Amino acid sequence: MRKVLALALVVVLVLAFGAAASAAPKWTFKMGHANPAGTPYDETAHKFAELVEQKTNGQVKINIFPNNQLGDWTETFELISRGVVEMGFQIANAQYDPKLNFAYYMPYVVRNVEEGKKAYSPGGWAFDIIRELWLEHDIQPLAVWPVGTAGVSLKSMPPSPGDPNVPKRMKVRVMGIEACSLTYEALGYIATPIPYAEVYTAIQTGIVEGQQGGPPFQAWSFRDVNSVWIQYNDYFETHWVTINKDIWDKLPADVQAAMQEAANEASAIRWGQVETEDEEYRNILKNDFGWQIVMLTDEELKACADKVRREVWPKMKDLLGEELYTEVRLNSMAE
After folding, report:
1. Which of 22, 63, 65, 83 lies in disulfide reach of 69, CB 3.0 to 4.6 Å?
2. Nearest to residue 146, comparing CAs of 58, 240, 72?
3. How far apart are CA 231 and CA 221, in angstroms?
């Protein structure tokens, strides 16, 4: 009897160990992003990880690291390219390739969410161009992770915010990208490149009066030091669901298909959020913090876009190259 019980126990343990082993993921990937934990961006990032786990039957597990825990976007671009970090909700880093300026910040390529969704969805003209640019750096793009439509937050209201020909005489922090400086100078501001980590203190101490570089959600981070939001729509911010290309190429075809399907579903969720998220944060800034919100008219947006395209775009030709510049220009003007 004891031998029978012992044998039964061995069988149970073997089966339990086998079940545990089969449940263990074959691949575990790190994936980071810049937004704080608990934000809609972060929650949807975790939803993507859940979808991947479900669709691959537990073969792939993705651990999400919010708030730049794996490094900021300039660092993670290189880490993903080298395969040190496997995946990311990544921003294109033009420090490695001037053509990647188009993949992150080229002003007034699109002017609103509707145009952005058309250009950056699978099969869209911008999606196809940027996808090839990622691949040149050993990064496999899976889907666009839309963030929102940009503008500027300020301490006070500038003169004639919708007229780009009126000097604003206000110092504004811009991203350390030449096109950002050129754009906000064309809009009438004094552009001042400052690293994002230093922006809050720079506004607080009066070095600059406001900041550019993202949608209303980013302005919410400066709710205590600014009081005006102007929706210039100078660019539609996009991040991308990415994975190191060598790692991707080694995955079985069925796993690739499952991960691609998960990326498409999660991207669709983000597109749905972005359509309302900008408005929600503008309302929070106005109703909860007393901000003044300026929504430019169609005529004002056109005047801003026309001036920036006329003055800034030609200076980007050397960065993008004649072929890419011409392709972008023709497609943007057709929108």
Report:
1. 65
2. 240
3. 16
Amino acid making up residue 71:
G
β-pair type (292-295, 27-32): unpaired
More confident position, 173 or 6 = 173
- Of 105, 144, 150, the closest CA to residue 125 belongs to 144
**Residue ranges of domains in the chain:** 27-147+237-279, 151-235+289-334
Q: What is the greatest pairwise CA distance in the chain? A: 95
pTM for this entry: 0.85
CA-to-CA separations, 108 to 4, 247, 287, 293, 310, in angstroms, rounded: 77, 35, 29, 21, 11
pLDDT tens digit sequence for 115-136: 999 999 989 999 999 999 999 9
Amino acid present at 212: Q
- Name residues whose C-beta falls within 8 Å of residue 309's C-beta, 6 or more positions apart in sequence: 107, 108, 332
Q: Are 145 and 120 in contact (CB under 8 A)?
A: no
Q: Tell me the helices (H) and strands (E) count for the chain, helix number first.
A: 14, 11
CATH number for the region 27-147+237-279 comes to 3.40.190.170
Reading the block at residue 176, the tokens are 């350390």
167-188 mean pLDDT = 95
Most confident of 84-98, 189-203, 243-257: 243-257
